[in-house]
Structure formats: structure tokens, C-alpha cells
Amino acid sequence: KRKMTHELYLPRCHRTYSCVHCRAHLAKHDELISKSFQGSHGRAYLFNSVVNVGCGPAEQRLLLTGLHSVADIFCESCKTTLGWKYEQAFETSQKYKEGKYIIEMSHMVKDNGWD
């Protein structure tokens, strides 16, 4: 996967979630899987895929739902830590999270046609 040096903009026809700090697009509403997640600092959303997001090194963390290998994710534009990516889940019931992304609500704002 080649490294993007410019910010990726999602089509204006899509309802999107953007970084509250710099307004870079982060995800399409269509990629939202669940709103019932808990981040480090409050409620968080689980997304299937994201854009304009960088990934740190993976590490094992004991979360509310058991042991996971996760990597912190950050906005490529302003470098704010947004949440994390699930690299690996060690419990069978949690495997569906692998390769998915958690973004905390406090870092997101809704853009484009939410009315």
C-alpha cells in the first residue's frame, strides 16, 4: 500500500466523520460498525476502515473485553491520537474486531448532510 502524502477527501455526497481538531476526513458513516464502544477517555465508535490515519507500533493491552494486540492511531494531518486499531484478539468472541478501528467521539465531528 503506497504512502499518501496528501490528505484524502471523501466524496461530498457521503456523511463523514472528521477530526475535530483539524477537520481532516477520518471515516465514512457507511464504515461505522458500532457506537457502543469505550475508548480510553469516553465513548468511541468502531469503524471498518478509516482515512488520513497513521498507525503506531502494536502492543498487547488488557481491555474490558480481554487481551488484545492494538496499535494507537493518530490523525495524519494534526498528529492527534484518535484511538486504536485492533491488530489481534486472543479470545474467539472478539475476533470480529481484528483489523478494525476505534475512534473516540471526543475527536470526531460530523460533516456533510447529516440533517
TrEMBL record:
<dbReference type="InterPro" id="IPR039058">
    <property type="entry name" value="Yippee_fam"/>
</dbReference>
<keyword id="KW-0479">Metal-binding</keyword>
<keyword id="KW-0862">Zinc</keyword>
<dbReference type="GO" id="GO:0046872">
    <property type="term" value="F:metal ion binding"/>
</dbReference>
<feature type="domain" description="Yippee">
    <location>
        <begin position="15"/>
        <end position="112"/>
    </location>
</feature>
<dbReference type="InterPro" id="IPR034751">
    <property type="entry name" value="Yippee"/>
</dbReference>
<comment type="similarity">
    <text>Belongs to the yippee family.</text>
</comment>
<protein>
    <recommendedName>
        <fullName>Protein yippee-like</fullName>
    </recommendedName>
</protein>
<dbReference type="Pfam" id="PF03226">
    <property type="entry name" value="Yippee-Mis18"/>
</dbReference>
<dbReference type="InterPro" id="IPR004910">
    <property type="entry name" value="Yippee/Mis18/Cereblon"/>
</dbReference>
